[in-house]
Amino acid sequence: MKITVVGTGYVGLVTGTCFAETGNDVTCVDIDVKKVEKLSSGQVTIYEPGLEKLFERNLKEGRLHFTTNLEEGISEAAVIFLALPTPPGEDGSADLSYILKVADQLGHLLKDYKIIVDKSTVPVGTADKVHAAIAKNATVDFDVVSNPEFLREGVAVEDFMKPDRVVIGTSSERARKIMADLYAPFVRQGNPVIFMDEKSAELTKYAANSFLATKISFMNEIAILCERLGADVDMVRRGIGSDDRIGKRFLFPGIGYGGSCFPKDVQALVKSSQTVDYDFRILNAVMDVNEAQKVFLLPKIESYFENNLQGKHFALWGLAFKPNTDDIREAPALYIIDRLLAAGATVSAFDPEAMPNVKQLLGDRIHFAEHQYDALDNADALIIATEWSVFRTPDFEKIRTNLKDQVIFDGRNLFESPRMQELGFHYESVGRQAVTRLNSISK
Ligand SMILES: NC(=O)c1ccc[n+]([C@@H]2O[C@H](COP(=O)([O-])OP(=O)(O)OC[C@H]3O[C@@H](n4cnc5c(N)ncnc54)[C@H](O)[C@@H]3O)[C@@H](O)[C@H]2O)c1
Ligand SMILES: O=c1ccn([C@@H]2O[C@H](COP(=O)(O)OP(=O)(O)O[C@H]3O[C@H](CO)[C@@H](O)[C@H](O)[C@H]3O)[C@@H](O)[C@H]2O)c(=O)[nH]1
């Protein structure tokens, strides 16, 4: 099938590449000229494990094309996916201007029946708005379908190729058949395509993200209780996660959820609720807890250094909002850095992929280390903000000798507390009791 993806960012590039991989002829359209040039010349513009190989193969075999020209890009397509940004507007509700602008243009450009698919995360009622914006100028028949995307960054290819489910919202029988054909290769594993109306599909996406964010904020509050009551959140997590009704996943406490989706989508659902005169109380609490959680380590750090961070130097491992991505949108590490700098401290950071993005944002306000161990030089303490695999089994001897003082604040619970104590560290984490060194080995 010939398909077009409008918007070749994270979701657009993965969507286009994966549809090409299943034999479709895919044209990706983007207004970013540099991005289109890079992609056309074979350069993948995002860091996503497994994507490059698929991208190169499909580009070489002629199933992937890139253009900045919308008219040319959609001319032969049967299905047009809109994978455009829906950032928070000034009041926190989803900004639909990117989507509606393209919808408006499409109305002028459609020459035969096409399906226009909202792949972006959009509030309930957007399919109707997109339909109206196209219909204003269109002279041919078309359908608008809601097909939200559930991929996670870092495992995006796997999520797309083997989805837990595909949600397709449409009231058109014609569109339903074409969408079912398009997704047939992805649901061979027995996972379902769930057909529903457009509004339910739109709400499903927000409900999924908001529910997952709720799980995280809930566990972060349990972690606080664990610390105060003398319990261990790892034990509690295992204890409740073994109940199938609760499930093992997304119960990891930490320093808050970040990324380009949860923060904006939870906020957008709260705003949507307000438009129908409903105060979504649980989600307001989820957001409050997350705000506090992003800087959860700060009071621990301040207390250790007796409320004086002036002149202190910190090593920071992890800048991306989670491992296996270079994405720093709403990354908790950035909030920690801000607070440390404001308190007069300095920071030397290391991240396997995200440093170029942070450099663009912060310039020389912090130091970027060549290697994870270089970041430790002369540091008063190590702070861990992202659970990259390379941080999980470090050379503790190197940490000990490179750090000025053997102190670790771990926002991702990477290590076992008793072991850290044996190794001679002062170690504080999330939802577990702080341990202090048995034998202090200060330099
Ligand atoms: N990033 C994720 O993990 C993820 C997962 C599921 C859903 N989503 C949702 O998918 C949507 C897209 O997210 P993203 O992270 O891919 O965004 P992104 O910012 O990475 O990419 C958007 C792309 O659209 C392009 N663009 C903007 N205006 C355009 C126009 N008029 N014509 C053509 N291209 C245009 C931009 O240049 C950019 O390349 C959002 O609604 C997001 O909430 C994101
Ligand atoms: O137990 C957990 C799991 C996750 N997180 C944090 O939650 C955030 C989001 O993580 P994750 O969901 O893995 O990343 P995203 O790539 O943002 O994916 C989410 O957002 C996407 C965009 O809407 C959806 O498509 C995905 O289904 C949804 O998982 C990150 O900051 C994680 O550190 C935790 O703190 N504890």
From TrEMBL:
GO MF term list: oxidoreductase activity
Keywords: NAD, Oxidoreductase
Family matches, as Pfam families: UDPG_MGDP_dh, UDPG_MGDP_dh_C, UDPG_MGDP_dh_N
Domain UDP-glucose/GDP-mannose dehydrogenase C-terminal: 315-417
EC number(s) from the headed UniProt entry: 1.1.1.22
Top EC class, one word: oxidoreductase
InterPro entries reported in the protein's UniProt record: 6-PGluconate_DH-like_C_sf (IPR008927), NAD(P)-bd_dom_sf (IPR036291), UDP-Glc/GDP-Man (IPR017476), UDP-Glc/GDP-Man_DH_C (IPR014027), UDP-Glc/GDP-Man_DH_C_sf (IPR036220), UDP-Glc/GDP-Man_DH_dimer (IPR014026), UDP-Glc/GDP-Man_DH_N (IPR001732), UDPglc_DH_bac (IPR028357)
Biological or metabolic pathway of the protein: Nucleotide-sugar biosynthesis; UDP-alpha-D-glucuronate biosynthesis; UDP-alpha-D-glucuronate from UDP-alpha-D-glucose: step 1/1
UniProt catalytic activity: UDP-alpha-D-glucose + 2 NAD(+) + H2O = UDP-alpha-D-glucuronate + 2 NADH + 3 H(+)
Annotated Gene3D superfamilies: Cytochrome c1, transmembrane anchor, C-terminal, NAD(P)-binding Rossmann-like Domain
Family from the record: Belongs to the UDP-glucose/GDP-mannose dehydrogenase family.
Name of this protein: UDP-glucose 6-dehydrogenase
Source organism of this protein record: Chitinophaga pollutisoli
